[in-house]
């Protein structure tokens, strides 16, 4: 995979157009458990920290595809991705490190998505942490950005999902996280611990939760497929690979 890079940040808006949202709606009407979805609750403490939400109509001069029910936003500037810088579309996952359905996606579906679409250069894959399961979710999210300071964002992401404990069982406390990262090769644990103790990324992790709710997150995992110009289709829950394939292929056509 190519080096992790960043994308620019712009305004959030709701887009209209034609497309496939209705075609996949049936997958998303069977309840949280059936969806493989950990439901979120709006936290007023976080507020609307990143951007604003409003209705708009895409520019008619754009050559990007438009899909009905899509949401337009740009990925935050600090976000990291896997894949080619020149990829045609983005896959933007919002996940909670404590969410069991996010782990299901990580174990069962993400490898296929990576192989077919990310490693092949067709798409970029972003992951952005949100904190909806409990207090330790916020700690784990901050840890990812502390690991990123040492170029270990994705190593941290993969290790934490591969070794996820039961939600709110205490496996994601600061001391437990500091202990776990000893297993990440090349990570300076002293620097990591200092970063985590400083809580320097607490606001960022809270901002990501607020941002996700602004663009329609109702639970985790949630994947947005598309582009800033053409809009993103939302896939909610740990859906089978075929669901992701259908939406991604529609954008690539």
From TrEMBL:
SUPFAM superfamilies: Thioredoxin-like. Gene3D superfamilies: Glutaredoxin. Pfam families: Thioredoxin_4. One of its GO terms (molecular function) is oxidoreductase activity. Residues 51-253 form the Thioredoxin domain. The chain crosses the membrane at residues 12-35. InterPro entries: Thioredoxin-like_fold, Thioredoxin-like_sf, Thioredoxin_domain. It comes from the Archaea. Keywords: Disulfide bond, Membrane, Oxidoreductase, Redox-active center, Signal, Transmembrane, Transmembrane helix. The keyword Cytoplasm does not apply. Belongs to the glutaredoxin family. This is Thioredoxin domain-containing protein. It comes from Candidatus Nitrosotenuis uzonensis.
């Amino acid at each position: 995979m190519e080096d992790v890079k960043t994308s620019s940040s712009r305004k959030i808006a709701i887009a209209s157009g034609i497309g496939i949202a209705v075609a996949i709606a049936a997958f998303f009407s069977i309840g949280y458990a059936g969806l493989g979805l950990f439901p979120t609750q709006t936290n007023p403490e976080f507020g609307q920290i990143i951007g604003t939400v409003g209705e708009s109509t895409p520019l008619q001069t754009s050559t990007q595809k438009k899909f009905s029910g899509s949401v337009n936003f740009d990925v935050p500037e600090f976000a990291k991705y896997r894949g080619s810088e020149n990829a045609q579309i983005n896959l933007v996952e919002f996940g909670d490190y404590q969410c069991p359905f996010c782990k299901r996606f990580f174990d069962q579906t993400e490898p296929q998505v990576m192989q077919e679409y990310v490693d092949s250069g067709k798409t970029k894959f972003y992951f952005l942490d949100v904190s909806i399961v409990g207090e330790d979710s916020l700690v784990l999210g901050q840890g990812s950005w502390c690991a990123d300071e040492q170029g270990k964002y994705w190593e941290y992401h993969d290790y934490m999902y591969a070794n996820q404990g039961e939600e709110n069982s205490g496996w994601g406390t600061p001391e437990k996280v500091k202990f776990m990262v000893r297993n990440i090769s090349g990570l300076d644990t002293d620097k990591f611990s200092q970063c985590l103790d400083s809580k320097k990324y607490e606001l960022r992790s809270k901002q990501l939760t607020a941002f996700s709710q602004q663009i329609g997150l109702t639970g985790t995992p949630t994947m947005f497929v598309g582009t800033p110009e053409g809009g993103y289709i939302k896939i909610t829950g740990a859906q089978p690979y075929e669901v992701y394939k259908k939406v991604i292929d529609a954008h690539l056509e």
